[in-house]
Model the fold of this input.
Amino acid sequence: MIPPVEAPRGRGYRRPMAGWWRRNPYFFWYMVREVTAVGVAVYALVLLAGVVCLARGEPAWNGWLAAMRSPVSIALHLLLLAGMVCHAWSWFDIMPKTMLFVGGKRVEASTITRAGWVVAVVAAIALYVVARMLRP
Done:
């Protein structure tokens, strides 16, 4: 049988936790990155809803498209776009800390960050071009 654990008698020092993430810029940007990840998940759910509507048939798909054209949806998309840009920026800022060597050679942090942005922009442009070409 395990003996019960007694609670400490004195309160001792308790570090205040309110606003802990606002005191240090590192933790502030960590929390911003975590919050923007929620926005990425919300947008994934929006796209998943579109795929479900597409599977249900043309009326459901047209209803989803109409919902995406509403002013509220456009405002939500602009807000989510800003969140995703902030999320991408924070990840590209972290990337050099995880990828110091490429091919056995040390690479400058700014080079890694810029390369990440170039790849992201090129991929976005390519996706836009393909989407425009497939549009009826």
